[in-house]
């Protein structure tokens, strides 16, 4: 019986999804330097899917080395725009530039999760959602950004699918929890197998 899972992330949304699904959890952020890892993987020509999977695994493994015999859940989400990796913005200007890039285009949101124990991955899953953004003027994009808090902006890529961001899209194909960064259905299915 699983007594708890350690979430190797400081994402409030991921914690909330675990809580809503009655999965006992404790948070211990991995503090992995994602930018350095992404840079290295991009140089190796890794796909956005592989980058997301590698980051989720790295986060889970790092925390699970310190948490002996505990199950540790690592997660990572990236945007794949025609093979180009789009990362979370670090400023409002960068957020605007990302929205301009996505404007009127179809892209994929890739969410990977990994469960590790004693420093090794024991299970992983990568889910993908397809989103098509409507066409907006620069003014409309700026107006959208003005409604988003800094915390939300830097935590959820550039759109909050469960809030204001839903209005940005003409098409969303995929699981809502995958888009929010934690494909909970697959995690629960895995946890069922180990009870």
Write the layout of secondary structure elements.
Elements: E1 5-7, H1 12-20, E2 25-27, H2 34-43, H3 48-66, E3 71-81, E4 84-86, H4 92-102, E5 106-117, E6 120-133, H5 138-146, H6 150-155, E7 169-173, H7 176-179, H8 184-193
Parallel strand pairs: 1-2, 1-3
Antiparallel strand pairs: 3-4, 3-5, 5-6, 6-7
**What is Rg?**
17 Å
Percent of residues in helices:
40-55%
The average pLDDT value, as a whole number, equals 90
Uncertain residue ranges: none
CATH topology: Maf protein
CATH class: Alpha Beta
For the largest beta-sheet, the strand count, sense and barrel status come to: 7 strands, mixed
Q: State the total count of DSSP E strands.
A: 7
Derived from helix and strand composition plus strand pairing, the structural class reads alpha/beta
The proportion of strand residues reads 25-35%
Q: How many domains would you count in the coordinates?
A: 1
Proper CATH architecture: Alpha-Beta Complex
> What form results from the Cα inertia axes?
globular
Distance between the termini: 5 Å
Oligomerization category of the chains in this entry: single chain
Count every helix, treating DSSP H or I runs of 4 or more residues as helices.
8
SSE sequence, one letter per element: EHEHHEEHEEHHEHH
